[in-house]
Specification:
Helix content is 82%, strand content 0%. The chain is mostly helical.
């Protein structure tokens, strides 16, 4: 049966409307999922700085307690590449959608249990051991979450806007930080110190279970991405996607990890370690530092899509390199201000620190995602992204605490940040810029002579 012109136009209009609807849903699902995941993760980060040393390591000195607390923090990062491998396999075998539902459930359940976990005074050594186990589960879930969320949006929409679309997953980080830190800030402001330390900090962890329910409803309504569906139809999926990604794209995996050093490592100093340093050095209130981080994160909500859109116009590497260089230049002034003190200067430098972070974090999703072909993209991008967690993000607060203790000066941490920026510049210089390439074409990923 041959359709008339009007009927054919109606069919085309209907298909275009459905396409636009799915793109909007995919972008929203990408953002809401990572928001929930990172809300849970940042709650833990804040609690690791302010609560956990006294609750789970009460017999330790202040320095040892901080080290032990940040060590449990680092465990979650070490688990991320494991999660990337596990869920990368399934994401490139059965699809993005189902895999993302599982990661969301894992993260939410682990955070809910943290919210009811008794301290060492009640159950002894079991308390920190269970805390570490829950942190491992969180790390595994986050390890599988990122690449799926990025691809959910990036593989659905206009390929000329991959930078902008991929940034919807990145928005989840500052939004999760706003919600998680905002919840902690509100509770620390309205509750007494004793009430906040004993039970108030648990409320945001338990509230994450409600957010997970909302996220699940949204993700269950999304269809599989057209790029992956096409790979399935053409029988282009791999039986061993993670193994094949490592075998054929090991260079891109390592470069993806390296380019994250000046983004990820300073970020966890700028949002987590700063809480410990400023409160200990100047005895400022927890609320002041939390509010500064909160305002900076809120600003990133606008800056991440802006710099991502800019990368669609001028190229990913140009925007990314600018952010990496500025991060290195900021390293010494940042700690000079923190050391000197003053409410206004500290507030300003905390905000500026996340501006340079946004310049990298926005375009990063597409820059890494575009480095791998569709049938290996979930695992390859996830491994590259999460491998940096082991060497950059996870150890950062732990090493910063140690460096300050050993050297007695915060400028040793500045040197640490500069070295990270140098690594990033070298890796970005070497990675291919595919911001204007056709990433549905396998020829795009053919080895250059």
């Amino acid at each position: 049966m041959v359709l008339g012109r009007n009927e054919a136009n109606k069919v085309i209009d209907s298909q275009q409307t459905e396409q636009r609807t799915q793109v909007r849903r995919a972008a929203f699902a990408s953002a809401i999922g990572t928001t929930i995941e990172w809300y849970d993760f940042f709650l833990y980060n804040t609690a690791a700085a302010l609560i956990f040393p006294q609750l789970f390591f009460p017999s330790s000195s202040a320095y040892a307690g901080a080290l032990q607390s940040f060590a449990t923090y680092a465990v979650g990062f070490a688990a991320r590449p494991v999660g990337a491998a596990i869920f990368g396999y399934w994401g490139d075998r059965i699809g993005r959608k189902v895999t993302l539902v599982i990661t969301l459930l894992l993260m939410g359940i682990a955070s809910g249990i943290v919210g009811v976990l008794p301290g060492a005074a009640t159950i002894g050594i079991a308390a920190p051991l269970i805390l570490v186990a829950l942190r491992l589960i969180q790390g595994i879930a986050i390890g599988g979450e990122w690449s799926g969320s990025v691809l959910l949006a990036m593989e659905w929409g206009d390929q000329r806007k991959r930078g902008l679309l991929g940034s919807f997953a990145q928005i989840g980080v500052p939004l999760g930080l706003v919600l998680g830190t905002g919840g902690m800030t509100l509770l620390s402001a309205v509750l007494s110190d004793d009430a906040f330390d004993s039970w108030g900090w648990r409320i945001p962890f338990l509230a994450s279970l409600i957010l997970v329910g909302v996220g699940l409803m949204i993700r269950l309504r999304i269809m599989e991405t057209p790029m992956f569906a096409s790979a399935v139809a053409k029988q282009r999926t791999s039986r061993k996607p993670v193994t094949d990604a490592i075998r054929h794209h090991w260079r891109e995996i390592l470069l993806s990890a390296g380019l994250r050093f000046s983004e990820q490592m300073p970020f966890y100093l700028f949002t987590s370690y700063v809480l410990v340093y400023v409160v200990a050095e100047h005895h400022y209130s927890k609320t002041f530092v939390l509010i500064a981080v909160l305002v900076a994160a809120a600003l990133e909500l606008a800056l991440i899509p802006y710099f991502s859109h800019l990368s669609d116009r001028v190229g990913r590497k140009r925007v990314y390199l600018t952010g990496a260089v500025l991060t290195g230049l900021l390293a010494f002034p940042y700690f000079a201000v923190l050391k000197a003190g003053g409410y206004v200067p500290i507030f300003i430098v905390v905000v500026i620190s996340l501006v340079v972070h946004a310049m990298q974090y926005g375009p990063q999703a597409a820059l890494i995602g575009e480095s791998f072909p569709t049938h290996l993209r979930y695992g390859g991008a996830g491994l590259g992204y999460q491998l940096a967690s082991v060497f950059a993000g996870g150890p950062a607060p732990l090493l910063a605490t140690w460096l300050l203790h050993v050297t007695g000066t915060p400028f040793s941490i500045s040197v640490y940040i500069v070295l990270a920026a140098v690594i990033t510049v070298l890796c970005v210089w070497r990675i291919a810029d595919r911001s204007r390439s056709d990433i549905t074409d396998d020829a795009t990923y053919a080895r250059r002579a």
